[in-house]
Design brief:
- This protein is an alpha+beta fold.
- It has a single domain, classed as Clavaminate synthase-like (Double-stranded beta-helix), CATH 3.60.130.
- It is built from 6 helices and 18 strands.
- The protein has helices at 27-39, 53-61, 143-148, 152-158, 167-173, 224-238; strands at 4-7, 14-17, 43-46, 81-82, 85-92, 95-96, 99-100, 121-130, 138-142, 162-166, 192-196, 198-200, 207-209, 216-219, 244-247, 254-258, 262-266, 277-284.
- Strand 1 and strand 2 (14-17) form a beta hairpin.
- The chain binds succinic acid.
- Succinic acid is lined by residues 91, 106-107, 113, 124, 138, 264, 266, 278, 280.
Amino acid sequence: MAWRIEKLGPDLGAAVTGLDAAAPLDPAAFSELRAAWLDCGGLLVLRDQDLTPDSQVAFARRFGPLFGEADQLQASLHRYLLPGQPALYRVSNKVTDGVPQGRARAGDYWHSDVSFRARPAAASLLYAIELPESGGDTLFADMCRAYAALPEGMKARLAKLEAVHDFEVAARTSGTYDAAQLEHRDFDGQNRAVHPVAITHPETGRRALFVNPGFTAAVVGMAPGDSAALLAELQAHATRPEFVTRHQWRLGDLVIWDNRSLMHHAVVDYDGRGTRTLHRATVIAEPPRA
Ligand code: SIN
């Protein structure tokens, strides 16, 4: 292939140069790229992209059906979709003539995209359009390696457990949602789902932890205190430094991450010091399986 791929860390992440995601990519080349994405742990950075909204969406569709097309993101986010291109969710702290150009502080907590749906997110494809001079990195936690490092007794315990994921957790507790802009219909059950606490990745067969503090409300059947203690223990384990990779964005980066094997956290350390605008296309997954 004409593109070059370079590892970003010993276990997680790779950067691709020499590939134009807006140009036609034949099925064999796309399969190779998809395999590279899975092989590097699900964090692939395509450098130097020059994408229009339509070309980003066309490329994202090759990974699967998209939120905004085959299903909708939660109603509270609809105001942040790109006008004319509902498959792109705008993450931005920019305000023009008093109108926010995206959701500021989006993802400023550990989460896996849309995990509160029966069919959550598989890939997310986030494209950097405007960046502050420094800061605004994104952290990724490798939930496969975190799972693999658990003691066998804990793995056996988790194999029997399921957890409730609920958009309301982030909406009410993350401090990143403006209460006045939350849509009440988001809390009538359509943004709540039960998933296994440990899942098997449908494409790689690797086991992964599938709980996150952003959206995971409770472990099913456990007393609230025991559930909170277990979730806190798993969270502390999954975000140990050896499982976390920090992505420092460059303009034109298209980062493709796998929500079935990673959690992520936007670092909001640039407030008042620059504009950060990115567009996200989000691919719908199959229901997670233990
Ligand atoms: C997100 O959670 O999708 C946004 C991540 C970021 O802005 O870095």
